[in-house]
Design goal:
By secondary structure, this protein is mainly alpha-helical. Helices cover 81% and strands 0% of the residues. The longest helix is centred in the C-terminal third of the chain and has 27 residues, at 143-169. The protein starts with a helix and ends with a helix.
Length: 202
């Protein structure tokens, strides 16, 4: 159902087909919360699966509204961050090689260069955020500090995405909300690249 609705929202500019299914699900609060739970689990599994996190967060707002949608998205996103941190804190580079799927030296250089800011800067960027969580787990960063930074960087994103999803559910279409789900990650990536170009290496 989730994949069908996602394809539906992307495929129909006027949003009519999407809203018909959305209204049916919203009338059944139990079904809406079940979809929210699936979204949360998929976001938590983002460390292992290439899921479209920004679109899922937006859909969470569509089904549950801003507050509840942001909450479910936040639980899943933080779950992924904590899982990556915990696995690499426990098993080190072995876990990173298995799940990180990236050049460790480049990501570690990024974390070393920006320190605590690396956690915040990476939150809007798909794939980078999971890898940074893994590298943080291999560092000497205290878990409480990592968790606080992850919350500070993740919660605003979840609120924005969920708000966009909730607004699109009451509007004439969902195209702008889906567009936002792509624009924010692109903007985050641009900020990371720009900051890297301007900040001198230590």
């Amino acid at each position: 159902t989730l994949l069908f609705v996602a394809a539906d929202s992307l495929g129909y500019a006027d949003g009519l087909f999407f809203r018909n299914h959305l209204e049916q699900l919203q009338q059944d609060s139990g079904s809406a919360w079940c979809v929210g739970a699936v979204i949360s689990l998929l976001l938590a599994a983002d460390l292992f699966l290439p899921v479209p996190s920004s679109i899922l967060m937006t859909l969470s707002g569509c089904f549950l509204g801003t507050a509840a949608g942001a909450f479910m998205a936040f639980v899943g996103a933080i779950g992924s961050a904590v899982l990556g941190f915990g696995m690499c804190r426990r098993w080190g580079r072995k876990a990173f090689v298995r799940w990180g799927g990236s050049d460790e030296s480049r990501v570690r250089s990024f974390v070393d260069r920006y320190g605590t800011w690396a956690i915040l800067l990476s939150r809007p960027v798909p794939m980078l955020t999971e890898v940074v969580s893994c590298v943080a787990g291999m560092s000497d960063m205290p878990f409480r500090q990592f968790l606080a930074l992850s919350v500070a960087g993740t919660l605003p994103l979840c609120l924005v995405y969920a708000w966009a999803g909730a607004q699109s559910a009451d509007s004439t279409g969902v195209s702008w909300a889906v567009l936002l789900a792509f624009v924010i990650p692109a903007a985050g990536f641009a900020v990371v690249k720009l900051a890297g170009a301007r900040r001198p290496q230590r």
